[in-house]
Amino acid sequence: MNIKDIKNYFPVLNQEVNGHPLVYLDSAATSQKPIQVIEALKKYYEFDNSNVHRGVHTLGNRATDSYEGAREKVRKFINARSTKEIIFTRGTTTALNTVAAGYGRQTLQEGDEIVITYMEHHSNIIPWQQLAKEKGAVLKYIDLQQDGTISLDAVRAAITSKTKIVSIMYVSNVLGTINPIKDIAKIAHDNGAIIVVDAAQAAPHVKVDVQDLDCDFLAFSGHKMCAPTGIGVLYGKEALLDNMEPIEFGGEMIDFVGLYESTWKELPWKFEGGTPIIAGAIGLGAAIDFLNEIGLDNIAAHEHKLAAYAMDELEKIEGLQIFGPRDPMQRCGLVTFNLDDVHPHDVATVLDMNGIAVRAGHHCAQPLMKWLQVTATARASFYLYNDEADIDRLVAGLRSAKEYFNDVF
Amino acid sequence: MSFNNLDQLYRSVIMEHYKNPRNKGILQENNVTIDMNNPTCGDRIHLTLKLTDGIVEDAKFDGEGCSISMSSASMMTQIIKGKKLEEALELADIFSKMMLGEEYDLDKYDLGDVEALQGVSQFPARIKCATLAWKAMEKGVKSEAQ
């Protein structure tokens, strides 16, 4: 990977912020977009803008071809068996809500168990909380080990014959931990449960293979993997999706509409009510082409290297506490930390004044913050366009923040 | 690295309030309790007020947050003590205008330490931190005034 060339694909990176060259370390919140994706959106709106599956005219055909072409790219990207298993959604949150409201509402009985973990993003907690309340089901949490990883013993202890749904993130957006999804899927299936995977932080960074993982549903967002905001994917095994009722009705998803009864289109369109997110899907397709060209394995290796370097360098800063596993191979390319008594907001502001963008707050993971016994943390998250020089800037910024607050205190 | 801009935000009086907050704690004798949080970052404030005969007799705050939110709470509790309820609300309005960079009446009140927070208006991402305690106070006073 030639990082200099890759950086050049991202016009946004070529700017100064607060008088300093921008260092963007907030890709876990949203990634930057390469020129290839921006051009794909521009081309669609300049030449092909039209609704899909409706018009018999040329523009309509072009838009439909590009939209469905993007679905095929997603299928290959995650190695699904069929494009029937690929539903375009607004993002991970909508995808997980679709599973909870569609599959969960239809199948759960009172007393059934839903199993999640303490590290989940709010998007993978609240839909299950709501479902559990509605159905009288029990929401259970898998405990974490001290270093922020999950042991299979803890998984086995939490999943029982009463468990019907296990929903877990592939990669933690706070701890960086990569969870053993394949093993957890086997435990879930052995107990008669299905497994739902929140791959929002995995799909952009590691090769996701839904057949190898044997997951039943998997959700991710486009905007964290170089695509535009507002597009995401719900993968589901065809047999499960076939038996699920849609949760949004009208427009694109209908087959026949009578006065009192209607029928739905077949998969995947029965879950795509209204005019779909056409430009978003096309942008996602372009992002997948871009990522494939560089290679997910290369991206993952690059991020592991950056995470290892970042942790080595950050550990040299006295009073800096890093959360999550120490072994860089057990984690993705993000590092979450706190600096002495300086509140992460204050750290982030000092870094911002030096042109360095990081995230500070609870990262939509309040139960995990409670588990870590902190109210907030700072997080630097890397992507394919970051390099060691960016991390050096972060480290220098943190040293200056420490110095600054030591002086003013 | 240059800290000129940062000095606008982290004036020494702010950091002094952060380090030595005034009125930190919970009023045992209170008639108004307000809990408010900033959902994007998890900062939270627990404000207790003793409002007697249309006057803010006492105020204390508890909570967790960044230097700006906690020092602002400290200054807010300091300035509203002894004020009439309508004066407290007017101060909240002045503070809001100060944060938004709008004009406000400079002559009516001696803002004291609160003036140090003026620089926050140059940092849009931090305005919510500074206004948390004031919004809590406004809510509490309004609930009592009704």
Automatic annotation (TrEMBL), chain A:
<keyword id="KW-0808">Transferase</keyword>
<dbReference type="InterPro" id="IPR015424">
    <property type="entry name" value="PyrdxlP-dep_Trfase"/>
</dbReference>
<dbReference type="Pfam" id="PF00266">
    <property type="entry name" value="Aminotran_5"/>
</dbReference>
<dbReference type="InterPro" id="IPR020578">
    <property type="entry name" value="Aminotrans_V_PyrdxlP_BS"/>
</dbReference>
<dbReference type="InterPro" id="IPR016454">
    <property type="entry name" value="Cysteine_dSase"/>
</dbReference>
<dbReference type="InterPro" id="IPR000192">
    <property type="entry name" value="Aminotrans_V_dom"/>
</dbReference>
<dbReference type="GO" id="GO:0031071">
    <property type="term" value="F:cysteine desulfurase activity"/>
</dbReference>
<feature type="domain" description="Aminotransferase class V">
    <location>
        <begin position="23"/>
        <end position="394"/>
    </location>
</feature>
<dbReference type="InterPro" id="IPR015421">
    <property type="entry name" value="PyrdxlP-dep_Trfase_major"/>
</dbReference>
<dbReference type="InterPro" id="IPR010970">
    <property type="entry name" value="Cys_dSase_SufS"/>
</dbReference>
<dbReference type="InterPro" id="IPR015422">
    <property type="entry name" value="PyrdxlP-dep_Trfase_small"/>
</dbReference>
<keyword id="KW-0663">Pyridoxal phosphate</keyword>
<comment type="function">
    <text>Catalyzes the removal of elemental sulfur and selenium atoms from L-cysteine, L-cystine, L-selenocysteine, and L-selenocystine to produce L-alanine.</text>
</comment>
<comment type="similarity">
    <text>Belongs to the class-V pyridoxal-phosphate-dependent aminotransferase family. Csd subfamily.</text>
</comment>
<protein>
    <recommendedName>
        <fullName>Cysteine desulfurase</fullName>
        <ecNumber>2.8.1.7</ecNumber>
    </recommendedName>
</protein>
TrEMBL record, chain B:
<dbReference type="InterPro" id="IPR002871">
    <property type="entry name" value="NIF_FeS_clus_asmbl_NifU_N"/>
</dbReference>
<protein>
    <submittedName>
        <fullName>SUF system NifU family Fe-S cluster assembly protein</fullName>
    </submittedName>
</protein>
<feature type="domain" description="NIF system FeS cluster assembly NifU N-terminal">
    <location>
        <begin position="10"/>
        <end position="129"/>
    </location>
</feature>
<dbReference type="Pfam" id="PF01592">
    <property type="entry name" value="NifU_N"/>
</dbReference>
